[in-house]
């Protein structure tokens, strides 16, 4: 025992600038862990959508299932830390699980592992899906398990007289969380946009997930490095198990005494007072009262967490060209942490005090109601943006229809004949939708050239009439917008160059070499399909000693056809056809919805945790559960709703939240605020604990006589426990 006390004393003496050296390891650990989590999460939904090739609904469902699991596992982490391993060992063991999960996730994104035919697409999607799901489960266990432990473990490193340093620590801790979140959300989408591959160049998801995995390993190593300097407390026992047993006994005892001959009790939990302490019963009553108020709250999180799924997918159909830089769709999420850092001090220091000075009773529950209404307005704004996007989207054919566009270089009037219709044109500006697949094309030449074609059901095709009309042919076009919100050209039979932007289709009449740095394409009377990444690209055509070059600017999400005639080297002429219009709705239009949802977050989430602590300070797990339930609601709606239009789903969520906010406001109106400290003091008085308090007050008065300095120190020591708890939960407010 003497040796242990000496070790603890040595650890307490190891300080730097008045702070325990151990907290520097904890701060760095938290920064790396938050970078790892938010960096992985930023690109997760696009990985599902464009690597695993899931549709929007399935990608959204799995994303929210993962987030829900991340908010359920903190309960498990708290139980393990308090009842079994203690905070230090819990952080170590679950961080190892966390790191393994991140590495597993990064490995699952390497397409070359199963790409045997080297076409850039994995041949065994089951392997990648199984590996990624295993990685996500391990990540959820890790990040959720250490969530309730790290901040509290940092607070354990301070002594009772270090209240000022403790306050500063939590401020720096909060800064590291936001810095890790902000930087990772900016950096990982850029890493994803890079090209990599042993055989084919693809989106660099391994790098986007690999860097967060490396940061998690660094986080673990840093935390272990400070092991010898930490103050480690033993497990104190988890109150959750005691609460569950107390509630179970109350229900069981109430059922036993359900007969009318037994006198009624004020609250059904009072049936547990035969076995359990009245103070514990009173605390459980407080918790249950708040939990009942929590019932409508998951709907807020249903909307809020969609900024990482539906809103990111919405950004893929928009233009990210800001002139000086190109914004990736998944980088729009950085608007949220930036606005958080801006709005929290504005709300705390300006808006809320101003409302209070105006004499308005803006209670915590009223703030939360207003926060929910702001979130509903955010989804109305998202619906308006989606309506504008839908106006620019092409009208694709149904499974029983075909679409045809005609590009005529021959420049003679054409007679395209099919059942019930005759059409004359030289060039069709848009696709014609046909309900019959068999058509006959007649050219008014001398002699007349007639040729029959069979169109593809549910497909888009271009009929190209070259300068030698006898060689007219059909070219299959893309049937969807280019991937991931960038510029692209239709993917065809020769996908010789694939990147993250625009499809380029080049039709030629004889052998030539097309140099598209860093790609070299050879083609002979075929259509080549390329994906190009930049808004402007330079092309070089070569044929023997002849060559020409041209430059073309592309739009986000566009599809183009370039028809190269045999006279290209002498006339420098080409025919450009825009098969699919570029994304014309700018990503900047998402900023209002991000502003509204972040304002709602500040009013709802921050205020909600403060309210929870003030009304039931012993239990906060229910708050995290509301987030988990909210994500489960998104999962259900995405899989079962199947609304034909995305804007309609946004309006549905907004309407549901407005309805829920009305219900919550009614519940809040009848809610009576309590003072937990006063209730606990009254119970202690009834249990005969008041003499001890009086004795403590007498001792304090005697100590005050020793001088003003000792008086302040006694008061500080008396309140330090409350200060630690209060600061801890203030930290969690901003963390969430």
From TrEMBL:
<dbReference type="Pfam" id="PF00854">
    <property type="entry name" value="PTR2"/>
</dbReference>
<dbReference type="InterPro" id="IPR018456">
    <property type="entry name" value="PTR2_symporter_CS"/>
</dbReference>
<feature type="transmembrane region" description="Helical">
    <location>
        <begin position="21"/>
        <end position="40"/>
    </location>
</feature>
<feature type="transmembrane region" description="Helical">
    <location>
        <begin position="510"/>
        <end position="533"/>
    </location>
</feature>
<keyword id="KW-0571">Peptide transport</keyword>
<feature type="transmembrane region" description="Helical">
    <location>
        <begin position="286"/>
        <end position="304"/>
    </location>
</feature>
<keyword id="KW-0769">Symport</keyword>
<dbReference type="GO" id="GO:0015031">
    <property type="term" value="P:protein transport"/>
</dbReference>
<feature type="transmembrane region" description="Helical">
    <location>
        <begin position="338"/>
        <end position="356"/>
    </location>
</feature>
<keyword id="KW-0812">Transmembrane</keyword>
<feature type="transmembrane region" description="Helical">
    <location>
        <begin position="91"/>
        <end position="113"/>
    </location>
</feature>
<dbReference type="GO" id="GO:0016020">
    <property type="term" value="C:membrane"/>
</dbReference>
<keyword id="KW-0472">Membrane</keyword>
<comment type="similarity">
    <text>Belongs to the major facilitator superfamily. Proton-dependent oligopeptide transporter (POT/PTR) (TC 2.A.17) family.</text>
</comment>
<keyword id="KW-1133">Transmembrane helix</keyword>
<dbReference type="GO" id="GO:0015293">
    <property type="term" value="F:symporter activity"/>
</dbReference>
<feature type="transmembrane region" description="Helical">
    <location>
        <begin position="207"/>
        <end position="231"/>
    </location>
</feature>
<feature type="transmembrane region" description="Helical">
    <location>
        <begin position="166"/>
        <end position="187"/>
    </location>
</feature>
<feature type="transmembrane region" description="Helical">
    <location>
        <begin position="125"/>
        <end position="146"/>
    </location>
</feature>
<feature type="transmembrane region" description="Helical">
    <location>
        <begin position="368"/>
        <end position="387"/>
    </location>
</feature>
<protein>
    <submittedName>
        <fullName>Solute carrier family 15 member 1a</fullName>
    </submittedName>
</protein>
<keyword id="KW-0653">Protein transport</keyword>
<dbReference type="InterPro" id="IPR036259">
    <property type="entry name" value="MFS_trans_sf"/>
</dbReference>
<dbReference type="GO" id="GO:0006857">
    <property type="term" value="P:oligopeptide transport"/>
</dbReference>
<dbReference type="InterPro" id="IPR000109">
    <property type="entry name" value="POT_fam"/>
</dbReference>
<feature type="transmembrane region" description="Helical">
    <location>
        <begin position="650"/>
        <end position="674"/>
    </location>
</feature>
<feature type="region of interest" description="Disordered">
    <location>
        <begin position="690"/>
        <end position="713"/>
    </location>
</feature>
<keyword id="KW-0813">Transport</keyword>
<feature type="transmembrane region" description="Helical">
    <location>
        <begin position="60"/>
        <end position="79"/>
    </location>
</feature>
<feature type="transmembrane region" description="Helical">
    <location>
        <begin position="621"/>
        <end position="638"/>
    </location>
</feature>
